[in-house]
Amino acid sequence: MNEKRKHRLMVSFTDREIADLENRANGVPVPIFIRASILGGDAASAIRPTPEINRAAYQELGRLGNNLNQLQHKLNSPDGYAPAPLMERMQPLVAEALAVLQQVRSALLGSGN
């Protein structure tokens, strides 16, 4: 279901009700929890907090990606530091590595396929 959500409902809750909802949601944002509870589905599978280890790996892979981008920029510049045949062979490898890196980073956040 890829429809854009364009309707909002205003609902008021007491402090106790909100606390109860947050407790039941167990880390899932309350609006997502409510939607999943009412319309069916598992709120926990709709969105889960990203584990800290995944965040750390995501950040480290981002630094690696920056290094690969710098290498790719150097390979594409006319004053590259490697012989032309080597640069030509490395360009697609670096591009492929960047694509795989992005897929892994997405998977770490739970948005990969």
Describe this structure in words.
With 113 residues, this protein is mainly alpha-helical. The chain has two domains: 15-46; 52-108. It is built from five helices and no strands. It has helices at residues 15-25, 30-39, 43-46, 52-76, 84-108. Helix 4 packs antiparallel against helix 5. The longest helix has 25 residues, at 52-76. It is elongated. The mean pLDDT is 82.
Helix content: 55-70%
Strand content: under 5%
Structural class computed from helices and strand pairing: mainly alpha
Strand count: 0
Largest sheet: none
Report the mean per-residue pLDDT as an integer.
82
Counted up, domains total 2
The residue ranges in which pLDDT falls below 50 over 5 or more consecutive positions are none
Listing every helix as H and every strand as E from the N terminus to the C terminus, the arrangement reads HHHHH
Note the gap between the termini: 17 Å
Rg, rounded, reads 22 Å
Overall shape: it is elongated
Summarize the structure.
By secondary structure, this protein is an all-alpha fold. It has five helices and no strands.
Sequence-ordered SSE layout with sheet pairings:
Layout: H1 15-25, H2 30-39, H3 43-46, H4 52-76, H5 84-108
